[in-house]
Amino acid sequence: MAGGAREVLTLQLGHFAGFVGAHWWNQQDAALHQTTDAKESPGELCPDVLYRTGRTLHGQETYTPRLILVDLKGSLSSLKEEGGLYRDKQLDAAIAWQGKLTTHREEVPPKNPYLQDLLSAEGVLSSDGVWRVKPIPNGKGSLPVSPALTPKSLIPTEGGIRVWSDFLRVHLHPRSICMIQKYNHEGEAGRLEAFGQGESVLKEPRFLEELEDRLHFYVEECDYLQGFQILCDLHDGFSGVGVKAAELLHDEYSGRGIITWGLLPGPYNLGEPQKNIYRLLNTAFGLVHLTVHSSFVCPLSLGGSMGLRPKPPVNFPDLRYDATLPFHCSAILATALDTVTVPYRLHSSPVSMVHLADMLSFSGKKVVTAEAIIPFPLVPGQSLPDTLMQLGGATPWTPLSACGDRSGTRCFAQSVVLRGINTASHISQVTPGTSLPSTLHACASGEEVLARYLQQQEPGAVSSSHLLLTPCMVAPPYPHLFSGSFSQQGVVLDGTSKGTVQSIPVFGALRSSSSLHRTLEGLAEELTKLDLRRWASFMDAGVEQDDMEELLQELHSLAHCYREGHSLPD
Length: 570
Prior knowledge:
Largest sheet: 6 strands, parallel
Protein name: Protein misato homolog 1
Domain DML1/Misato tubulin: 159-346
Number of strands: 17
Subcellular location: Cytoplasm; Mitochondrion
Structural class: alpha/beta
Number of helices: 14
Strand order of the largest sheet: 7-4-1-8-9-10
Organism: Castor canadensis (American beaver)
Domain Misato Segment II tubulin-like: 6-118
């Protein structure tokens, strides 16, 4: 472990969390191998915050995510629960029992063609049954994709993506994947549908002990653990799993940051009333109870609303995506996540998870929203002040927390990251003596440009901002979602695109605003109208009528924190 890295342990809970996580880790892996000039890539982000070093049983150095991933039986497809990096058939054969053995084999799901291409690029399974990884540059990450492989062979077809492991290109440690065997990923029976079911999973001694063992394994090797980030599905029973996991972390690791990203997949089908009611109840219970144990909670969704009244998915001017495909939605959310988490992943920054939470969640405001511009519209020859002025007076970024239109609302605090902007574009190059188009053009640095822009947009808000050279990586297997003409670095072009887009500039923000008052009160109103007698199966899973009444009170109390005029920090 590199000295001074402020480590973070990531927990992924649920299948959509697995989709977002797969894109997220693919982006981290691509960033490890970004081959750019040292002057243009100063190593702003510290990968040791998210990754750990180790060795296989054969002495090969590994660099794997510091990750605990929880999903249901049948969700891994061809991925082995123990991963592929450490597997050794010789050890598998060393069985203590010497008597008669009966072997039962399940049919192995066919490996996705994309992963077959990837594995052939990264290593071979030798005749002795040992996986031999090809030499890793700098000893970190997985091998960069071989130029001999055509781009088409390394782009998974959307029809071939059934589960998140179909496009994960990162090797995981054997202690990363933790399966819930009691519930099924597919089929109509044995599903993890309700909040109470999820809570009960972590009340089972065997599963709780397994989770605690994995936590201790990762935590005890950390020198400067700053906290935990939880990617948790909110729409199903994993909302209950997330609450109990956050409670466990809060009780065992007091003082550490716990940031929860509550994930909601794309639009839902009005013809499935039970699923929609369960979605509403799971989201409300998860959101409220996660705030108790988390430093803050941020819902992430491309949907227009958390409630039962459907609204169109959000729009990005330069993206064309299918909101019904988890592969598409999760890629966009991962890009936003990779950007807004920058403050606590920097090599040199006083901002920790706890500091970030303290700035955003004062006075009980434990829910924040995320917003982004993907990609940030850089045009050759234009400066950052030019681009920001062209975005217009209204807040131009796209909401990503299913809180609807936030026009006319007030921002209390915000953490903003703008990344992928080269130094030459930071300030205006207006000829001396020429009148300045705006006060932004008078700024002496890019950091000053961004800070002044935010002050103009939200004059009363507490703001923190970071400007990075490092772009966000969107190389395959990231889906091709870009509708305009872009260079490989995500710069807007007049003509046709030149090659596959490899990286893009992104603007991302976490905000505490009065829009959450309307959202949380709206949730409470919809819950009040429910006739719970019709949904006895949800209640039978472990939720009492008193729990429902307490939930409504807590929603109202939480919403009250976001009223206009509620106290601001000193």
